[in-house]
Amino acid sequence: MDEKRTVKTSKMLSRILRHEPERVGIALDPAGWVRVDVLLAALAARGNRLTRAELDHVVATNNKRRFAYSPDGLSIRASQGHTVAVDLGLAATEPPPVLFHGTATRSLGAILREGLRPMARRDVHLSADAATATGVGARHGRPVVLLVDAAAMAAAGHEFRVSANGVWLTDAVPPEYLSQAQ
């Protein structure tokens, strides 16, 4: 599978497994899983043939590890980023003292006033390092990195979870826990 097809397939799977499973006629279970054979058959029925080996390649080579197989390898789901209602079953986890959030400079004023909200997603996404946050912010324009005082948030009772691909998730980040990285 060439790089161009790998990227195109990854984007398609993200759309289906995070946002629009009905687009190909599948339903995710409450935890976001769908059987691999059901997904592949649904894709083929819509003219988008994908073999299990090709799916394995996309899952294994995705640099953001967006997809995960169930322990038995029979089901697949997106690791995080859903707009459809799913419960990933992630346990509350003690966060590192500081987490990071990348955004575009044009959004900075509103975020510092209102905090971080999940918007269309189920959770706010945070990074464990500034470099990752910078990359995320750059997708939306000139990037700015925010520091999240995760230790203070946790002490105040805010819950954090970490996805299978290392993205830190929380319901919201109030503005008093944010500062701009220098």
Automatic annotation (TrEMBL):
Its EC number is 2.7.1.-. The keyword Metal-binding does not apply. One of its GO terms (molecular function) is transferase activity. Coiled coil: none annotated. PANTHER family: PUTATIVE PHOSPHOTRANSFERASE, TRNA 2'-PHOSPHOTRANSFERASE 1. Removes the 2'-phosphate from RNA via an intermediate in which the phosphate is ADP-ribosylated by NAD followed by a presumed transesterification to release the RNA and generate ADP-ribose 1''-2''-cyclic phosphate (APPR>P). May function as an ADP-ribosylase. Belongs to the KptA/TPT1 family. This is Probable RNA 2'-phosphotransferase. It comes from Kitasatospora misakiensis. The lineage of its organism: Bacteria, Bacillati, Actinomycetota, Actinomycetes, Kitasatosporales. The gene is kptA.
